[in-house]
Amino acid sequence: MNKHIAGIVLYNPDIPRLQENIESIYKQVEQVILIDNGSKNIKEIKFLINRFEKLTLIENKQNKGIATALNQIVNYSMNCNFNWVLLLDQDSVSPLNIIDEFDRYTCTDEKVAIICPEINDRNSVQVSNSNNIEEYEYVKECITSGSFLNCSIWYEIGGFDEKMFIDYVDIEYCKRVIRAGFKILKVNRVELLHEIGKRNTYKFLWLNVPTYEHSAFRKYYITRNTLYFTRKYKEDENILYAYLKVIKRLIIVVLYEKDKWKKINAMYRGMRDSYKMI
After folding, report:
1. Residue 60 pLDDT more than 90?
2. For the whole model, what pTM was predicted?
3. In the chain, what are the domains?
4. What is its pathway (predicted)?
């Protein structure tokens, strides 16, 4: 019988939502590892987790980014002799059968690096695709939260890219998985309740333009990492298309969003700093 572990990355989490997250996965695994990235509400976090026995908290005194925290989780899991680890964001709620369902596929193909669920966005009005007639399918990428990660393959391809800090971390890892000849398997009947972000739709001429409104902090990393990722994989990616995406986001900021100058400045710095990363 396989042992199971789950890892959750924390940064100023909403405590009731975090409790819901922990309770949804706690009975499905032998251990839960929490990596805190310098949360201001660390006392409330500790008060909550003291109610649970098999939780381990590792505190980073400052925000080291999502990539570093994910690498800490997988390193810890390997040191404790776990072969697979379930990665979760702090606002995700797992179905009660996620581990049992994923476990069915861990031995079917030695090339599977990630097993992932259908994502059900809390803020979306769209109906999920859980009625897909296929039991599972192979995909080219998935988000980090809800992904069941093969620790040995993570080690083989070099873990998550810590230069990225946040944004595109999951996409970049998936790119390396596929390029190395491994696979990402999506189980269509497993749904993860996850909050992707606040989505807005703006009217531009005759078009409805959907977008997620982010802070200047996030605008910087999204811009920087979009261009860094495209240059890093220039054999597969289109740099012109990447710049067009950045320009589109910039136009939306100028026309519709608050804190325009902060965000424009952040995006400019992101473009500039992307050249320093390669």
Report:
1. yes
2. 0.92
3. 5-194 (3.90.550.10), 199-274 (no CATH)
4. Cell wall biogenesis; cell wall polysaccharide biosynthesis
